[in-house]
From TrEMBL, chain A:
EC numbers for this chain: 7.1.1.-
Function comment: NDH-1 shuttles electrons from NADH, via FMN and iron-sulfur (Fe-S) centers, to quinones in the respiratory chain. Couples the redox reaction to proton translocation (for every two electrons transferred, four hydrogen ions are translocated across the cytoplasmic membrane), and thus conserves the redox energy in a proton gradient.
Organism: Denitromonas iodatirespirans
Cofactor: [4Fe-4S] cluster; [2Fe-2S] cluster
Annotated Gene3D superfamilies: 3.10.20.740, 3.30.70.20, 3.40.50.740, Dimethylsulfoxide Reductase, domain 2
Name of the protein this chain belongs to: NADH-quinone oxidoreductase
UniProt entry keywords in alphabetical sequence: 2Fe-2S, 4Fe-4S, Iron, Iron-sulfur, Metal-binding, NAD, Oxidoreductase, Quinone, Translocase
Residues covered by the 4Fe-4S Mo/W bis-MGD-type domain: 215-271
Reactions the enzyme catalyzes: a quinone + NADH + 5 H(+)(in) = a quinol + NAD(+) + 4 H(+)(out)
Family note: Belongs to the complex I 75 kDa subunit family.
The keyword 4Fe-4S belongs to this UniProt entry's keyword annotation: yes
PANTHER family linked to this entry: NADH-UBIQUINONE OXIDOREDUCTASE 75 KDA SUBUNIT, MITOCHONDRIAL, RESPIRATORY NITRATE REDUCTASE
Domain 2Fe-2S ferredoxin-type intervals: 1-78
UniProt lineage: Bacteria, Pseudomonadati, Pseudomonadota, Betaproteobacteria, Rhodocyclales
Automatic annotation (TrEMBL), chain B:
PROSITE patterns: COMPLEX1_24K
Record-listed [2Fe-2S] cluster binding positions: 82, 87, 123, 127
Superkingdom classification of source: Bacteria
CDD domains xrefs: TRX_Fd_NuoE
Family listed: Belongs to the complex I 24 kDa subunit family.
Cofactor note: Binds 1 [2Fe-2S] cluster.
Names of the cofactor(s): [2Fe-2S] cluster
Name of the protein described by the UniProt record: NADH-quinone oxidoreductase subunit NuoE
Record GO terms (molecular function): 2 iron, 2 sulfur cluster binding; metal ion binding; NADH dehydrogenase activity
Catalytic activity: a quinone + NADH + 5 H(+)(in) = a quinol + NAD(+) + 4 H(+)(out)
Source organism of the structure: Denitromonas iodatirespirans
PANTHER family the record matches: NADH DEHYDROGENASE [UBIQUINONE] FLAVOPROTEIN 2, MITOCHONDRIAL (PTHR10371:SF3), NADH DEHYDROGENASE UBIQUINONE FLAVOPROTEIN 2, MITOCHONDRIAL (PTHR10371)
TrEMBL record, chain C:
GO biological process: cellular respiration
NCBIfam families: nuoF_fam, PRK13596.1
Function: NDH-1 shuttles electrons from NADH, via FMN and iron-sulfur (Fe-S) centers, to quinones in the respiratory chain.
Identification of the protein by name: NADH-quinone oxidoreductase subunit F
Enzyme class: translocase
Length: 780, 158, 439
């Protein structure tokens, strides 16, 4: 510990602290631009100059290490003179266009200029003009305003993991820019908008939408992945105008993924469903709530009475709130059915009944930084979990070693120390080989139920992964979305459990959606022999209730799921959006609130329950889904639907204050293990593209213009491609047992041999059906 | 695409640095690429960056930071005259004026026949040789009287 | 006269730079002796300290002391870097050392590497002298062939790999941390210090950087003793030093003289004032050192202490001589343009301030000066100095301050009359193309 005195305040700081750290600790504000607590120190803006005892010149607080007994004045005449001098330099070439600048009102330069600037400029020469750059659809530039703090450059290098921006040219001619003709394509790019202390980088979708002081700032939670990023949603006249991160060191730190930041555009999409609608024959009529609900209730009642409750089932989006999921299952069960599910992309349900609790991450997100070994099984980690990957990336800088078992080898912008690339059908064998290797290395026995999976000889790759796991002190194994959606998901989880037991690792499931954990806790899955999602969608039931589900995009079966639902006699859809597909399959459409217009709770991957309230009034006649379900329950004369608020619903499910919440357990007990079946033919590898995950994101125009949202192609390695007798650029008809789709072919040499990568959750590929399948390609 | 010879030369440079520090060779690699191509087109910079496994923008930062890289095409003969103070005191500026008049171009211009580009240089570390100029970055010409300039231009025009 | 060629010893123009010539002059004897006797590293550093060799790159920091900062037992690589990025206007000595005596630098670096336990070194050579870079590569090949650098030098356990790295047109890379960044394949933007290179240098490893001339002095010190070297100079100013003389003298060029030699003698060696004209001012240590008016300069001796007393710096030993035909506003304008042009652009006061300075001086020179411009210049330089990451900010400011201080009348005349005090044709005549007799 070191003693230091700042502006007369005495304090002790840890060795290695800077003067800025010390000042932050005692709450002394030192003006700064280039300094940012999450970025490396550049010390280039010189705004933080302070007076230090015995130093002949002012020193930058951000970069000056504390020495024992140091005395610092941040506000003395000498310090202020230095700061004012720097401010004058910063302003000489800065345009005075605050009235038309989007940063106006939240500009660090503007704020500080009031305190440190002079009213009249001594600089009478011509000001610099810098051409703007095209950074893509999300970030707008006004480069003349740039003060060269290089925060954005350092962000792309250090946090996003790939240097997409640089400071080119020299001296006064310096310009912040991407490489010629390139845009900033990082899935975290929007953070440079927050980092830019002036109005050089601003939000393109938000451009001129509002002045900051007109906006109400309200807290919320992101519905797009299982991290549960905290949001500040900014609203004007009940319309969401912008989303910013709400800093939470334990979750999203001070960052947001672009998906969390820019998806709000979808909320304001023209395809919002704002009136209840009833189908009459082939036409749709707007209705008032009363008649729509009565219509739905009476028809449901009739179908259940006629066909039996087992012919009724509910499918809910995994991004629905705990309250919605809970009421949905309650309704289903009260009607005498057990057909309920929210795991729409899952294909293996053999863990049901043997799982001891809700699958979860297995450790708090904040502890990711302390891991030294991590095995990621079956994950498109970077695009599926942008901010969790960012944490892993930072941990890798501190020595975390990462292994991956997955058919693809996309660049995660972090070092992967060991990698196995099996075909999808070889995933179990690959993980079993690692199990054998860790057991052999540790001289441990493997549980009898898994013996049949163990290979006779262990590959060098499996040994390398085992060695990596064996050499750590703080080890974790994660199953990604691909593993969770895999036809042998439960077996993968059981093997991971065994590897964890042998190596002393923690293991968990990352979870694909905001309520992948919460849905389990809410009981939104069959418990008494009812049908799970896949069973409900392979054969038509007589009646369905859909909660924010777009069948062909949200369900594993794609178009087949839509066709199953279309075969029903009566379908009621609760949805925030209208769509041709929903009109085609449903009989009544009830407009329900997206997360910004309702109260609710998400339980994140780490088991953190986060409740939020509506940040805007429901659009049109939209109502919160929990209320709609409550009224439906009442109209159906079911017991236990007398809630007055959503907290009362939540209270029946979980204790929001507990962290982690109760009921989490990844253990599978007594899973019966099927032997590994060999698969012949070209195997499909299907990711859910980052901007196709849910109905809101799919309707966010700016995100849909990014490179990550480009229409899917069929990717094959060059060798596989030529074995198929195809060339890059060919158009092919891809066919599976369930259907087909027409696609263009491209090369991806990082893909495992014998695979074709075709994204799911996209209209153009929905016809192909299930994500795991043998596919044939025919040139057209 | 860079020629095999250039890539070989780049490999020699890469070998000067620790194995995990390929980027250290970027200055030499850009120089070699420029020698082959005459100037550094964006694709050339991109190719060098890929060869050295570094981000393209990082290579562009380097190419745009150091004066001797040409990011735009230049004439067959690039002549850079030092006009800094020590040289100016012994005729550096007047030598440059003479060149401008002879070639009929100003600094940063190229003769219409594409033969000569004239540049103003900063100190070349040869002030005792004033007037000094550089021919195509690598050949330094010292004590450039008007007669020697005439001679040089005549030789180069051949 | 005190001309004494230790560094440029026995050289006959361009013909004797090869290894065999260097060895004939006693070259590599010091290195051989050190290796044969396994001289303890600490003894070498002590000898260098005894010589009172001060860094020849500009700052004049005692070399022995700098070497002693390197951590002794450090796990992993340590590096050595030679700064041959000579680009400070007026300086052209390192080029001649590398041109005529490259092996003295190689030997000096090998000895330094031995003394500090460095396993690798780089000589960073100014881009504009590319032919020198090519020659140095040849010299390295010779030395490698002869076993003076490389693995297991002269059969001992000592290994030292030395390579050449060229700049490509950026003055700022002469600043030692910018130079390291440049070797790492980045823009040459100086690093904030601390940490200093001795703890966090090239690739984050302990590194020592010295100027070419500093290294070139080491073989002599080790061969003839630090004491001998010191005695060639004067106390606190050990040895001989190269002075690069440019400007209005009859014989511009490099002169190696004992430190402490009167300026007047040096001027005489350089053939005296061109055309017999009157001396007006001298920039004694490279363009960033403050200008000294003629009368003060004529009383100086050429050493760190005397020049410092005169309000300037010995710097790199680049002596820019200006006679009465010089317009001091125009001279400053050119220097200010240089610093504006060469600022790396990283830190605010330098990036924004150097342009401001240049534009104001440019205005004055072009008849658009304003009455309060000199106050403005002084104030802006005050806001730059001491507030930047590296010393380029100071380097850009000192000429402005000193020119105004010593030649303020000429600036005032300019502002008032919108024209030069020295008539245009007189200036042109004084600075017309001049090639001295030695060339
Ligand atoms: C802007 C600037 C330019 C410099 N240029 C050079 C140079 O060209 N050559 C040099 O040796 N030192 C130069 N220096 C000084 C170096 O930073 C460093 O002090 C020197 O190389 C150390 O070597 P020495 O101790 O042997 O002098 C420069 C410093 C600054 C701030
Ligand atoms: S003082 Fe100038 S050259 Fe030095 S770091 Fe700052 S901007 Fe770069
Ligand atoms: S915040 Fe310290 S220099 Fe910018």
């Amino acid at each position: 510990m070191l003693e230091i005195e700042i502006d007369g305040k005495q304090l002790q700081v840890a060795d290695g602290s800077t003067v800025m750290d010390a000042a932050n600790q005692v709450g002394v504000y030192i003006p700064h631009f280039c300094y940012h607590k999450k970025l490396s120190i550049a010390a280039n803006c010189r705004m933080c100059l302070v007076q230090v005892e015995k130093a002949p010149k002012p020193l930058p607080a951000c970069a000056t290490p504390v020495t024992n007994g140091m005395k610092v004045w941040t506000n003395s005449e000498a310090a202020v003179k230095a700061q004012k001098g720097v401010m004058e330099f910063l302003l000489i070439n800065h345009p005075l266009d605050c009235p038309i600048c989007d940063q106006g009102g939240e500009c660090q330069l503007q704020d500080l200029a009031v305190g440190y600037g002079e009213s009249k400029s001594r600089y009478q020469e011509e000001k610099r003009v810098v051409f703007n750059k095209n950074l893509g659809p999300l970030v707008s530039t006004d480069m003349t305003r740039c003060i060269h703090c290089t925060r954005c450059v350092r962000f792309t290098q250090e946090i996003a993991g790939l240097m997409e921006l640089g400071q080119a040219f020299r001296g006064e001619h310096s310009e912040i820019m991407p490489f010629v003709e390139k845009t900033v394509d990082s899935e975290l790019s929007g953070n440079i908008i927050d980092l830019c202390p002036v109005g050089a980088l601003t939000s393109k979708p938000f451009r001129f939408a509002a002045r900051t002081w007109e906006l109400a700032r309200r807290k919320s939670v992101s519905p797009h992945d299982s991290l549960g990023s905290n949001l500040i949603v900014q609203v004007k006249h009940d319309v969401v105008k912008r989303v910013l991160p709400l800093e939470n060191e334990a979750i999203n730190e001070c960052w947001l993924s672009d998906r969390d930041r820019f998806s709000y555009e979808g909320l304001n999409s023209a395809s919002r469903l704002t009136k209840p609608m009833i189908r009459q024959g082939d036409t749709w009529q707007e209705a008032d709530w009363q008649s729509a609900l009565e219509f739905a209730a009476s028809r449901l009642k009739a179908v259940v009475a006629a066909a039996g409750p087992e012919q009724f089932g509910a499918l809910a989006a995994p991004s629905a709130t705990v309250e919605e999921l809970y009421l949905a299952q309650k309704l289903v069960r009260a009607l005498g059915s057990d057909n309920i599910d929210f795991r729409l992309r899952q294909t293996d349900f053999s863990a049901d009944g043997v799982a001891k609790g809700a699958p979860w991450l297995g450790l708090p997100v904040a502890e990711v930084g302390e891991l030294d070994r991590l095995l990621v099984v079956g994950s498109f980690l970077r695009k599926d979990h942008p901010l969790l990957s960012q944490r892993v990336r930072q941990a890798a800088k501190r020595g975390l070693k990462i292994a991956s078992i997955h058919p693809t080898a996309d660049d995660w912008l972090l070092p992967v120390a060991a990698r196995i690339q099996p075909k999808p059908a070889e995933m179990v064998a690959a993980l079993a080989a690692v199990l054998k290797a860790v057991a052999d290395a540790g001289g441990k026995a493997v549980d009898g139920s898994l013996q049949s999976l163990l290979p006779a000889v262990v590959s060098a790759e499996a040994k390398a992964v085992a060695e990596l796991l064996g050499s750590g002190q703080s080890v974790a194994i994660w199953l990604g979305n691909f593993a969770a959606q895999h036809p042998q998901a439960a077996t993968l989880q059981r093997i991971a459990q065994e590897i964890a037991a042998i190596t002393g690792a923690r293991f968990g499931v990352i979870g694909e959606a905001a309520n992948s954990v919460g849905g389990h806790l809410a009981g939104a899955l069959p418990r008494r022999g009812g049908k799970h999602a896949a069973a409900m969608l392979t054969q038509s039931l007589k009646s369905y209730l859909l909660l924010n589900v777009e069948p062909s995009l949200d369900c594993a079966g794609g178009a087949a799921a839509r066709d199953a639902i279309a075969g029903a006699d009566f379908v009621v859809s609760l949805s925030a959006f209208d769509s041709p597909e929903l009109r085609a399959v449903s009989h009544v459409l009830l407009p329900v609130s997206p997360f910004t217009e309702t109260s609710g709770t998400f339980v994140s991957a780490e088991g953190r329950a986060q409740s939020f309230v509506a940040v805007a009034k429901p659009q049109g006649d939209t109502r919160p889904a929990w209320k709609v379900l409550r009224v439906l329950g009442n109209l159906l004369s079911l017991d236990g639907f007398e809630y007055t608020d959503s907290e009362a619903v939540r209270a029946e499910v979980l204790d929001v204050a507990a962290f982690p919440v109760a009921g989490l357990d990844n253990t599978l007990d007594g899973l019966s293990i099927a032997s590994i079946a060999a698969v012949d033919g070209l195997e499909r590898v299907a990711e859910v593209p980052i901007y196709a995950t849910d109905a809101i994101v799919r309707r966010a125009p700016a995100l849909q213009r990014t490179r990550d949202a480009a229409a899917p192609l069929a990717y094959l390695s060059a060798a596989t491609l030529s074995a198929q007798g195809l060339n890059a650029g060919d158009t092919v008809q891809a066919k599976s047992g369930q259907g087909s789709a027409q696609l263009n072919v491209a090369i991806d040499d990082t893909l495992a041999e014998g695979c074709v990568r075709i994204a799911t959750a996209h209209e153009s590929t929905a016809g192909l059906g299930a994500p795991f399948a043998v596919v044939t390609l025919e040139r057209v | 695409m860079l020629s095999q010879e250039s890539l070989k030369l780049i490999d020699v440079e890469v070998a000067k640095y620790p194995p995990d520090q390929k980027q250290s060779a970027v200055m030499a690699a850009l120089r070699i690429a420029q020698q082959e191509k005459g100037w550094l087109a964006r694709e050339t910079i991109d190719e060098v960056a890929q060869y050295l496994e570094m981000p393209a923008i990082a290579a562009f930062e380097v190419a745009s930071f150091y004066n001797m890289y040409d990011l735009e095409p230049v004439g067959k003969h690039k002549i850079t005259v030092c006009t800094n103070l020590p040289c100016a005191l012994s005729g550096g500026v007047q030598a440059a004026e003479y060149l401008k008049q002879k070639l009929g171009i100003d600094f940063n211009e190229t003769t219409p026949d594409g033969n000569f580009t004239l540049k103003e240089g900063e100190c070349m570390g040869a002030c005792g040789d004033a007037p000094v100029l550089l021919h195509n970055n690598h050949r330094m010409c010292s004590w450039m009287t008007t007669e020697k300039i005439d001679q040089m231009l005549a030789d180069l025009a051949k | 006269m005190s001309e004494r060629n230790l560094i440029l010893a026995g050289l006959d123009g361009d013909r004797t730079w090869r290894l065999k010539d260097y060895m004939a002059r006693g070259g590599y004897a010091a290195l051989k002796k050190i290796i044969a006797e396994s001289t303890p590293p600490a003894d070498i550093i002590a000898e260098v300290k005894a010589s009172v060799l001060r860094g020849r790159g500009g700052a004049g920091f005692p070399t022995g002391l700098k070497w002693s900062f390197m951590p002794r037992s450090f796990p992993g690589a340590k590096y050595l870097a030679c700064n041959s990025d000579e680009g400070e206007p007026g300086t052209f000595k390192d080029r001649d050392i590398l041109r005529y005596n490259p092996h003295s630098v190689i030997e000096g670096m090998a000895i330094a590497a031995y003394a500090m336990g460095c396993e690798r070194g780089y000589n960073y050579i100014h881009g504009e002298v590319f032919e020198i870079y090519e020659r140095f590569e040849e010299a390295l090949a010779e030395a490698r062939e002869a076993g003076f650098i490389g693995q297991k030098i002269l059969g001992s356990d000592f290994s030292f790999e030395l390579f050449a790295h060229h700049g490509y047109g950026a003055y700022i890379c002469g600043e030692e941390t910018a130079l390291l960044e440049s070797i790492e394949g980045k823009k040459g933007q100086p690093r904030f210090k601390p940490p200093f290179p001795a703890s966090y240098g090239l690739y984050g490893k302990p590194t020592t950087i010295n100027n070419t001339e500093t290294f070139a002095s080491v073989p002599f010190i080790m061969r003839d003793g630090g004491e001998t070297f010191l005695n060639y100079g004067k106390p606190n100013n050990g040895g001989t030093k190269l002075f690069s003389i440019s400007g209005h003298v009859n014989r511009p060029g490099n002169y190696e003289i004992e430190l402490g030699t009167p300026f007047s003698e040096l001027l005489e060696m350089a053939g005296g004032m061109r055309g017999g004209r009157k001396l007006k001012g001298v920039i004694p240590g490279g363009s960033s050192s403050p200008v000294v008016p003629a009368d003060i300069m004529m009383d100086c001796t050429m050493d760190y202490d005397s020049i410092s007393k005169a309000g300037s710096m010995l710097g790199s030993g680049a002596v820019i001589v200006m006679d009465e035909t010089t317009c001091m506003v125009r001279a400053l304008e050119r220097l200010s343009y240089f610093y504006f042009e060469e600022s790396c652009g990283q830190c605010t006061p330098c990036r924004e301030g150097t342009g401001w300075l240049y534009r104001v001086v440019h205005r004055i020179e072009h008849g658009q000066g304003r009455p309060d411009d000199l106050d403005l210049l002084n104030s802006v330089t005050g806001n730059i100095m001491g507030r930047t990451i590296c010393a380029l900010g100071d380097a850009a400011s000192m000429p402005v301050q000193s020119f105004i201080k010593h030649f303020g009348d000429e600036f005032a005349y300019h502002i008032e009359h919108k024209t030069c005090l020295v008539p245009e044709d007189v200036q042109r005549e004084g600075s017309k193309i001049y090639v001295g007799p030695s060339c």
